[in-house]
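Recap from last week: sequence in, structure out.
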Amino acid sequence: MTRSTSLILAAVVFLCISITSAQQDSKPATTQAVLAGKLIDVRTGNVRQHAYILIAGDRIQSIADSAPSGIPVTDLSSYTVLPGLIDAHAHTLSNPTSQSIAVELRTSIPQHTLWGVYNLRLWLDHGFTSLRDACEGPADYPQFALRDSVKRGIILGPRITAAGSCVSLTGGHGDGTPFSADMDLPRRPNVADTVDDIAHVVRRDIKYGADWIKLMATGGVMDPISDFHVQELSEAQMAAAVEIAHRAGKKVMAHAEGAAGIKAAVRAGVDSIEHGTMLDEEGAQLMEQHHTWLVPTLYCFQHDMETGLSKGRDPDSFAKGKEIMAAQGPAFKLALAHHIRVAYGVDDDDVDESVSKEFGALVRGGMTTLGALQAATINAATMLEKDKDVGTIEPGRYADIVAVQGDPLADITVMEHVAFVMQGGRIIKDPAHPDRNPVTHLK
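Predicted structure tokens:
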């Protein structure tokens, strides 16, 4: 071997050692660990016993049988551990104390925004570390301010993916002015009666920061003026909204109760159907063929039957709710029979009372316990295109971790009592320190 060849080989070996050393040095150091008594893999339903979740900064580094010495370990050995939960149909500005139109008229946008700050803490307290806001009424988009404030660390709350305005026909579900004809109010910027109107409203939402576009494909239940059986936005309008949104890299969700509106929205190419309460066989086939997501919001309607008129709800709205309940069960079973992809969403103003009870409603409706857990984790993350960051406890994902006592695969109602919450490596709720980040719970 010549001297020059030896020098080249030595240089190659030195370079390889240097690269390996650099790679090892660049690997972030483990900063903490969580010991899970039982760790549920929500992809498969497999349960790992006595597993250490190693965390580097705000991300999961690995799952191991032991933890490095010298780092803090949170002991959850008596708990079942799952990924942080996701509510894919939230209305962050909701007032949980009232369903009265009169109260709504007397509530300023700043007060709505403060309700949002309060509600976000409740979502976190119940283990929901991410959510999708499913449109809000104010024209200046307080939900975007909340989203950005959470991201910057100004306020505590789930990571927010936000729709813009509730895009509606005049007089439709989302019109926002269910008043007498002699009250001549200015046209709201979310109202679209033509395809050209749709283009303007959608582009306005995108201009000011919408992640999703929310279309009102049919009438709804909570407002006193629309008919949930009736298709409202035309298929051409919805197709235009989808084209504009998808071209801009945004996705589209459609409030759709009645069968005709569901089918029109699916044909138009929307990414998710919200509620889908009157889904029929043809609609289920379409959703299956188009791979359209369903966010069924089952418990919201059930809860409304429990609260009745006690929070000032309009009697006409309550009557619609009673009618919708007869269709809810068969429609959801049809969705399951067609293997339609389901994501967890609540759509209830009273976050504290309702946000965790959709699990039980999904299982009572025919879903498996694993399916219900997947709806609130990997499914919701996939629908939101956030599955590289959230939805599972895997290396590279955010250290979003929740823990419950008991086995949710055997009894899904244990999800109503989340004991531990971590978001991005930060402990939000800890049974060992109940005074950590206390939350006010309104009666």
